[in-house]
Amino acid sequence: MDSSRQAQGLLAYLERHGCETALVASRRRILFVHSAARCGPLTNPQTARPLLEDEVSFIEDTIGTAVADSYILRVDTTTGRLQPLDGSALAPAVIAQLNGSPQLRAIGIRVTDAGQMHSTIEGTDELDRELGIDTAGVAFNLNTSGSRPVHYAAMPYEAIDVLLGALAMNHEDVFVDLGCGKGRVLCRAAQWPIRRAIGVECEPALAACCARNLATMRGRRADTQVLCGRIEEVGIDDGTVYLTYGPFPADVLAAALAAIERSLRNRPRCARWIVAGADPTTLASLLEHSSMVKRVEWQQAIVIHLAG
Q: Domain extents for the chain?
């Protein structure tokens, strides 16, 4: 069976069990799999790409193996909680196995007795060290401002480099990362010969990390700035390339589009909005009401061309 047919079968299986995001595990391997309804091929959020054929085969083997060390767990992306597909409690042996996993330890995740994933924004990454920054680690329900909790996980460097290469920005471009986190993409973009790289982050702890990273990064070729605040509250009137990365809810995507459109009305120009990791169905429903969207294409992510 080819990879695409396998993926469709797995997509149907996970959706029957109400899984938008699942953790698929055995003693040998762990994958986080995103399979939101009608989103097309299964994707691995850790690499932001469709699953490879061997990964699809691994999941099929796990589904079909009735042994204690292979299982699929539903991931609540809002709370970071894990739960078996049948709704039962997470077995102590499974929790112990997860906490003993080098893969989860590498990204700073620990699972409590209640199945809650706990994490920090601390971590290590070899490419971070080369760049002189610290953007590793993951976080669930981070909230130091008293507003909506946010989650943090950086885009893999490989995906960043492929995306920035496809965008081919030049000295006239201003890159704006909406939800920049600790600033990995922002620092990488600032190594391109562009006019400016701006980050927007609503979580003060992440914005502070981003500011430190911008101060210590090596190989800078562009001016940089980080703004702490909600997308709708900050001024982004000179951006030409905007990025949102992650499974943002519909209201956040709507706020991002509204802010970009307001910016284009204030200073008419052409701009590109790069959307990676969002539900295409949700995004499509937002775009159909915009008069500024000129075309949508795929360049390693969804690229929306707008003009005001």
A: 3-100, 152-307
